[in-house]
């Protein structure tokens, strides 16, 4: 059924359906949780965003109680971590619950300190990365073949809000350099 659509009114509302609410808007402040009048699925463009991936928000709430969440490309969040002779360290803190869907790494310079591997672990706040839970089977070989992808099989996909993902290194990573990428979907 066709009906009228109100287009840009100069106040930050780009498109509004008179019966369904605001469909597309922009501004410098994301609408507060619980605000009325935004259609489910409504998009908000934050025009002064300074972080990559934090420019578009989607209303996951209702017309009577909005809940704008950051939008991600294809619903996935990708975290890539370039390492250079790494020690154990956190690489990402979850701002909401995620499901890990894939992990892959690639050696750019093989380490020269002997056998050296790494694991990706999740750890709650207050817990060292090395004491966290490994989220994949096997290990990433920091002295592996240069320019060869090393996919890891996800074995513990849950990443609760507030937990970090971290790199746990075993061995001496002298000169080791490369990248590890973790792909996640919002849970």
Set down the secondary structure blueprint.
Blueprint: E1 6-7, E2 13-17, E3 21-27, E4 38-46, E5 56-59, E6 68-70, E7 76-84, E8 89-93, E9 98-109, E10 116-123, E11 133-134, E12 140-141, E13 149-152, E14 158-159, E15 164-171, E16 177-186
Parallel strand pairs: 3-4
Antiparallel strand pairs: 1-2, 2-3, 4-5, 5-6, 7-16, 8-15, 9-13, 9-14, 9-16, 10-11, 10-12, 10-15
What does this 3D model show about the protein?
With 187 residues, the protein is mainly beta. The chain folds into 2 domains: 6-71, no CATH class; 74-186, Jelly Rolls (Sandwich), CATH 2.60.120. Helix content is 0%, strand content 49%. The strands form 3 sheets. The protein has a 6-stranded mixed β-sheet with strand order 1-2-3-4-5-6, with no helix packed on it. Strands 7, 9, 13, 14 and 16 form a 5-stranded antiparallel β-sheet that branches. The protein is elongated. The model has no long low-confidence stretch (mean pLDDT 85).
Q: What's the level 1 CATH class of the largest domain?
A: Mainly Beta
**Helicity level, as a percent range?**
under 10%
CATH architecture of the largest domain: Sandwich
As for the number of domains, it is 2
Strand order of the largest sheet: 1-2-3-4-5-6
What is the CATH topology assignment of the largest domain? Answer: Jelly Rolls
Brief sketch in words of this structure:
0% of the residues lie in helices and 49% in strands. The chain is mostly beta strands. 27% of the residues are buried.
């Amino acid at each position: 059924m066709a009906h009228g659509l109100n287009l840009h009114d100069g106040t930050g509302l780009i498109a509004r359906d008179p019966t369904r609410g605001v469909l597309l808007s922009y501004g410098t402040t994301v609408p507060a949780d619980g605000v009325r009048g935004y259609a489910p699925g409504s998009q908000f463009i934050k025009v002064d965003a300074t972080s990559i991936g934090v420019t578009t928000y989607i209303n996951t709430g209702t017309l009577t109680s909005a809940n704008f969440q950051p939008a991600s490309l294809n619903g996935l969040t990708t975290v890539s971590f370039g390492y250079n002779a790494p020690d154990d360290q956190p690489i990402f803190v979850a701002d909401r619950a995620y499901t890990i869907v894939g992990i892959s790494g690639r050696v750019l310079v093989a380490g020269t300190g002997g056998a050296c591997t790494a694991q990706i672990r999740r750890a709650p706040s207050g817990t060292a990365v090395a004491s966290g839970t490994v989220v994949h089977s096997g290990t990433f070989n920091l002295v592996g073949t240069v320019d060869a992808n090393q996919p890891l099989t996800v074995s513990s996909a849950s990443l609760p809000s507030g937990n970090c993902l971290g790199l746990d290194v075993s061995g001496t990573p002298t000169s080791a350099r490369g990248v590890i990428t973790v792909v996640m979907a919002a849970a």
